[in-house]
User: Fold this.
Amino acid sequence: MEDDTRQRLLDAAEALFAEHGFVETSLRAITTRARANLAAVHYHFGSKDELLRAVFTRRLKVLNEERLARLAALETGGPVTVEAVLTAFIEPSLRLRRAGVQGERFTRLLGRAQIDASEALRDFLRDQYTPVLERFQRTLGRTLPQLQPEELRWRLYFTLGVLSFTYAGARLPQMPFAARVAGDEEWLLRQLIQFLAVGLRAPPVGEKTEEAA
Amino acid sequence: MEDDTRQRLLDAAEALFAEHGFVETSLRAITTRARANLAAVHYHFGSKDELLRAVFTRRLKVLNEERLARLAALETGGPVTVEAVLTAFIEPSLRLRRAGVQGERFTRLLGRAQIDASEALRDFLRDQYTPVLERFQRTLGRTLPQLQPEELRWRLYFTLGVLSFTYAGARLPQMPFAARVAGDEEWLLRQLIQFLAVGLRAPPVGEKTEEAA
DNA sequence: GTCTATATAGAGATAGAC
DNA sequence: GTCTATCTCTATATAGAC
Assistant:
């Protein structure tokens, strides 16, 4: 148990942060689950905040790179459909879920973070997401030229809302099924694409009646 | 300052919980903002948890009653459209936002709670939401008979995801606009209805068929 | 009802032996 | 790298004077 303590700490933190949230999870709970000593966290990561960032960087970088790669591959083949763009964005994250319980936990954490995140983490996530979102927004804008930029941004915002909510596994009354999504990612993907694609493609609403301050 | 201390405590708690989250907000921060003594929280509410529940009950009960009333009014007039059902659900909460900064804070808290909530609060919210969601699900099922129940539940789930995310005011890179929605609720309502209605009405995905529109 | 003072518990972080 | 022991801070909660 030399340096794979580091990995066990990351795994334990990922699971507990995803399940209970960052503040609600104590370092003691993490080290207990990881069968490590309390001081190990500070030795390997320096602080609880750094540990959280490490949990994200471990998987987020490759995830977003895969998204960009898929989108780039798509655009070499002429005009793209909304469905294809959505798939390029969603499939990599759903593959994480399919990959096992660790990946599923990470997407849960990712979903929570979009709403939960503290100021510091928000900056971190913004740096990670900005290039990806800008890229997808540009591509979608070309695919949906009838939409005004602000209207497109709103629909992309709604889209990310659906994804964050679903990944976070928000449990709603009469809908305990959200927790047992694992194992049917194919069906979930089709449901997501179907719902989101028609929403993005809907006719524009049109002008704003008045400008917000 | 007799018993409107109670109101000031609720206002301060609502604002701080919505902005920073439940665990991240200390009673000291609340009582400072409310210009009240620390012990006042325990005198008026008993505990921090009870204070949180009181913040919710103050507005949630009447909100959900209004939703049910609108839906009932709708159904006396023959067949209903998806748009009308969505409006019956969304408009009351958007009216809260329009009503002022307090209402806007509450919807933000409500959005966060759908993902954030601890086990105890989740039970509380489930009790509050179950009758409303069941009712809307039944009405939507009659309006969209082509959808299998599970497919309908997913689409309702996505719908609530969009609403929670939007109310929570999740800030995304390149999308700082979410915070300044206040002041243009009419436009936001039309955007929401447009996006969600077509999603709910989309052709069923079905069992094993593969299809692109 | 409102205040001061304090009890009690738990958190993150660190020093230093091994 | 890992451990024990401990520092320091802040939290919720409560007792009791006024």
Chain B has a mean pLDDT of 91. Chain B touches chain A through 62 residues (CB under 8 Å).
